[in-house]
Amino acid sequence: MSGSDRVASSRVVRAVWLAVGFVSVGIGSIAIVVPGLPTTVFFVLAAWCFGRSSPRFEQWVLSLPRVGPLVGDFRAGLGMPARAKAFALTVMWAAIGLSAFALRDRSWIAAAIVAAGAVGTVYLVWRVPTQRRAQTRSSPR
In the 8-state DSSP scheme, what is residue 52? Predict the structure, then answer.
Protein backbone atom coordinates (compact mmCIF):
# COMPACT_ATOMS: atom_id res chain seq x y z
CA MET A 1 0.00 0.00 0.00
CA SER A 2 1.54 3.31 -1.01
CA GLY A 3 1.46 6.40 1.19
CA SER A 4 -1.32 8.03 -0.82
CA ASP A 5 -3.51 4.92 -0.42
CA ARG A 6 -3.44 5.36 3.37
CA VAL A 7 -4.29 9.07 3.43
CA ALA A 8 -7.87 9.67 4.54
CA SER A 9 -10.15 11.07 1.86
CA SER A 10 -12.11 13.36 4.19
CA ARG A 11 -10.56 16.73 5.06
CA VAL A 12 -11.98 16.55 8.58
CA VAL A 13 -10.52 13.09 9.20
CA ARG A 14 -7.14 14.21 7.81
CA ALA A 15 -7.23 17.25 10.11
CA VAL A 16 -7.93 15.04 13.14
CA TRP A 17 -5.07 12.65 12.25
CA LEU A 18 -2.79 15.64 11.69
CA ALA A 19 -3.71 17.14 15.08
CA VAL A 20 -3.20 13.83 16.89
CA GLY A 21 0.15 13.48 15.10
CA PHE A 22 1.34 16.88 16.26
CA VAL A 23 0.14 16.26 19.81
CA SER A 24 2.10 12.98 19.75
CA VAL A 25 5.22 14.78 18.52
CA GLY A 26 4.77 17.31 21.33
CA ILE A 27 4.43 14.64 24.02
CA GLY A 28 7.32 12.68 22.52
CA SER A 29 9.48 15.80 22.57
CA ILE A 30 8.64 16.41 26.22
CA ALA A 31 9.34 12.73 26.94
CA ILE A 32 12.92 13.19 25.76
CA VAL A 33 13.66 15.14 28.95
CA VAL A 34 11.13 13.57 31.36
CA PRO A 35 12.41 10.33 32.88
CA GLY A 36 9.93 7.48 32.84
CA LEU A 37 7.84 8.86 29.98
CA PRO A 38 8.31 6.77 26.82
CA THR A 39 9.60 8.70 23.83
CA THR A 40 9.63 6.46 20.78
CA VAL A 41 6.05 5.25 21.17
CA PHE A 42 4.76 8.80 20.70
CA PHE A 43 6.83 9.25 17.55
CA VAL A 44 5.62 5.88 16.23
CA LEU A 45 2.05 7.08 16.84
CA ALA A 46 2.83 10.42 15.18
CA ALA A 47 4.24 8.72 12.07
CA TRP A 48 1.16 6.48 11.90
CA CYS A 49 -1.19 9.49 12.19
CA PHE A 50 0.80 11.48 9.65
CA GLY A 51 0.68 8.49 7.32
CA ARG A 52 -3.09 8.94 7.27
CA SER A 53 -3.03 12.72 6.99
CA SER A 54 0.22 14.08 5.51
CA PRO A 55 2.93 11.91 3.90
CA ARG A 56 5.24 14.95 4.09
CA PHE A 57 5.04 15.05 7.92
CA GLU A 58 5.30 11.25 8.07
CA GLN A 59 8.58 11.51 6.17
CA TRP A 60 9.66 14.33 8.50
CA VAL A 61 9.24 12.06 11.56
CA LEU A 62 11.07 9.23 9.80
CA SER A 63 13.98 11.56 9.00
CA LEU A 64 14.45 12.90 12.54
CA PRO A 65 18.08 12.19 13.51
CA ARG A 66 17.67 10.14 16.72
CA VAL A 67 14.06 9.02 16.62
CA GLY A 68 13.47 8.44 12.91
CA PRO A 69 15.61 5.27 12.62
CA LEU A 70 13.92 3.78 15.71
CA VAL A 71 10.47 4.47 14.23
CA GLY A 72 11.53 2.98 10.90
CA ASP A 73 12.95 -0.11 12.58
CA PHE A 74 9.77 -0.56 14.62
CA ARG A 75 7.64 -0.29 11.47
CA ALA A 76 9.85 -2.81 9.70
CA GLY A 77 9.30 -5.28 12.55
CA LEU A 78 12.92 -5.05 13.70
CA GLY A 79 11.99 -3.98 17.21
CA MET A 80 14.47 -2.06 19.29
CA PRO A 81 18.16 -2.46 20.12
CA ALA A 82 18.92 -4.50 23.24
CA ARG A 83 20.70 -1.54 24.81
CA ALA A 84 17.71 0.75 24.25
CA LYS A 85 15.38 -1.89 25.66
CA ALA A 86 17.52 -2.28 28.79
CA PHE A 87 17.73 1.50 29.21
CA ALA A 88 13.97 1.87 28.76
CA LEU A 89 13.26 -0.80 31.38
CA THR A 90 15.76 0.73 33.83
CA VAL A 91 14.36 4.24 33.53
CA MET A 92 10.79 2.95 33.58
CA TRP A 93 11.31 0.98 36.80
CA ALA A 94 13.21 3.84 38.44
CA ALA A 95 10.23 6.11 37.74
CA ILE A 96 7.78 3.43 38.91
CA GLY A 97 9.78 2.91 42.10
CA LEU A 98 9.94 6.62 42.86
CA SER A 99 6.24 7.07 42.11
CA ALA A 100 5.22 4.09 44.24
CA PHE A 101 7.42 5.32 47.08
CA ALA A 102 5.99 8.84 46.87
CA LEU A 103 2.46 7.41 46.91
CA ARG A 104 3.06 4.76 49.58
CA ASP A 105 0.33 6.30 51.75
CA ARG A 106 -2.15 5.59 48.96
CA SER A 107 -1.32 1.94 48.51
CA TRP A 108 -3.97 1.24 45.88
CA ILE A 109 -2.51 3.94 43.59
CA ALA A 110 1.02 2.66 44.17
CA ALA A 111 -0.17 -0.87 43.39
CA ALA A 112 -1.84 0.35 40.18
CA ILE A 113 1.42 2.03 39.11
CA VAL A 114 3.41 -1.14 39.77
CA ALA A 115 0.79 -3.24 37.93
CA ALA A 116 0.88 -0.92 34.92
CA GLY A 117 4.67 -1.12 34.97
CA ALA A 118 4.50 -4.91 35.02
CA VAL A 119 2.18 -4.91 32.01
CA GLY A 120 4.51 -2.52 30.18
CA THR A 121 7.51 -4.68 31.03
CA VAL A 122 5.82 -7.86 29.81
CA TYR A 123 4.90 -6.13 26.55
CA LEU A 124 8.37 -4.71 26.03
CA VAL A 125 10.20 -7.92 26.88
CA TRP A 126 8.02 -10.46 25.08
CA ARG A 127 6.18 -8.55 22.33
CA VAL A 128 8.77 -6.05 21.06
CA PRO A 129 11.53 -7.85 19.16
CA THR A 130 15.11 -7.24 20.25
CA GLN A 131 17.45 -6.21 17.45
CA ARG A 132 20.64 -8.10 16.98
CA ARG A 133 23.78 -6.13 16.03
CA ALA A 134 23.88 -7.55 12.49
CA GLN A 135 20.19 -6.88 11.93
CA THR A 136 19.59 -3.36 10.67
CA ARG A 137 17.30 -1.69 8.18
CA SER A 138 20.15 -1.37 5.69
CA SER A 139 21.01 -5.08 5.65
CA PRO A 140 20.35 -6.87 2.38
CA ARG A 141 17.89 -9.30 4.04
Answer: T
The string of pLDDT tens digits covering residues 119-129 is 989 988 998 88
Convert 16-35 to b/e letters by CB count within 10 Å (16 or more is b): ebbebbbebbebbeebeeee
**In the chain, what's the furthest Cα-to-Cα distance?**
55
Closest CA to 71 of 84, 83, 61: 61
Task: Please state, in angstroms and rounded to a whole number, the distance separating the CA atoms of residues 21 and 41.
Answer: 12
Let me know if 73 is exposed, middle or buried by CB neighbors in 10 A (0-12, 13-18, 19+): buried
CA–CA dist 40, 23 (Å, integer): 14
Its pTM stands at 0.67
Domain boundaries, the chain: 1-75, 79-141
Contacts 24+ apart (CB under 8 A), 33-38: 35/91, 35/94, 35/95, 36/91, 36/92, 36/94, 36/95, 36/96, 36/98, 36/99, 37/95, 38/88, 38/92
* Rounded Cα–Cα distance for residues 103 and 99 (Å): 6
